[in-house]
Amino acid sequence: MADVKTSVSNTASTSNKSANTMMMNLIIVVVCIAVAESIFHLVFSTMFLDKEQKVAKNIFGTMYQGGWVVPILMSAFLIMCSFVVERFLTIFKSRGKMGNAEFTKKVQYHLSTKNIDAALAECDKQAGSVGNVMKAGLVKYKEMTSNSTLDTEQKIASIKKEVEETTSLELPMLEKNLVFLSTITSAATLLGLFGTVMGMIRAFSAMSQAGSPDANALAAGISEALVNTALGIGTSFLAMLAYNFFTTIIDNITYGIDESGFTLEQSFKANYK
Known about the structure:
There is one protein chain. By secondary structure, the protein is mainly α. The chain is 84% helix and 2% strand. It has one domain (2-271). Strands 1-2 form a two-stranded antiparallel sheet. β1 and β2 (55-56) form a beta hairpin. α5 packs antiparallel against α6 and α6 runs antiparallel to α7. The protein is rod-shaped.
């Protein structure tokens, strides 16, 4: 009955956290869009030597001439930066204060001497996802050492189940919001190309209406159109690097979690047959 109540409580807590996370993500996206639109219309629009003849003062003036796709790409860039910072802080905290190999070795030593409390203390020192999973497993491990109603295999299964349940709570927290980076990786490039195509259409349309070919006007139009491609590819490239960087760290943490579960199982088999 207690396990059922705990499960219900954990489910409710997870649901509340998910709702809060969704609301926070929505706020971040809206703020980034508002900031990008403000910079584009209030700052970039002033970067001209001659606004009537569309003579840009610098690259920001040229970006303003890129059209309405530019603030969308700027929003994507700001959203990407926001979630890179958020994931960086969360994932590096989840790595803990101790390397996985060193941490596992210390826990193995304490378990070999049957000093479970010392092993639990090492989990508190590690203070990361691997430590959290190991601690949950050790609590169940300690409980099983004094359990006389279950056989060894059932006790190990109970420890394994506890590790798996805790892992299922830890991993989603690590992978949360990476979907923004993976989406921006592909969407930013496509948006950039779309903006470039729209710019090229406007450039050639202006050329056709002018009546006579104007190489300077065409070159300026192409330059403005390519601003979208540069923004899109640049944003996509940075998002891809960040995504691959974070997934590599998460894979290492996941490996440490798997190793911790295996360590508990093997230790219990060896010490409490």
